[in-house]
């Protein structure tokens, strides 16, 4: 998939992802700042990824983890600070939620500060049933 939005190109071609841009951004994020760079690289290799490009520069990203049949998890969504306020993240989430491969699946995600964005696309807050388990270090 490749589409144009304003002067940007949004693509799910994983080969175009500028991995170091993702690693650098996530290192400063509240949700992934403890992830090791190699874990981030591995997650990109194992996921459906969307990049947003202005010319050759990647300015936005989203990652989708799915079983391909019943559920998809939207994560690591970001737009570089200089490019925010233009509707890029909204267009990115719209493309994901309306993608033929995801539209009949249950979508899940976690966010601390972007509820309004995701609610526009049918995501609902559900504190009663959402659970998580943080990564556990293995010892000896």
- Overall residue-averaged pLDDT value: 91
Strand content is 25-35%
- Radius of gyration, CA atoms, in whole angstroms: 15 Å
Q: What sequence of helices (H) and strands (E) makes up the elements?
A: EEHHEEEHEH
Q: Walk across the major sheet and give the strand order.
A: 1-2-3-4-5-6
Outline the low-pLDDT stretches. none
Largest sheet: 6 strands, mixed
By DSSP, the count of extended strands is 6
Provide an overview of this structure.
The structure is a single chain. A hairpin with a 4-residue loop joins strand 4 (57-66) and strand 5 (71-79). The chain is globular. Helix 1 crosses helix 2. It has four helices and six strands; from the N terminus they run E-E-H-H-E-E-E-H-E-H. Strands 1-2-3-4-5-6 form a six-stranded mixed β-sheet, with helices on both faces. The protein has helices spanning 19-27, 37-45, 88-97, 115-119; strands at 2-5, 8-11, 48-54, 57-66, 71-79, 106-109. Helix content is 24%, strand content 27%. It is α+β, with helices and mostly antiparallel strands and 140 residues long.
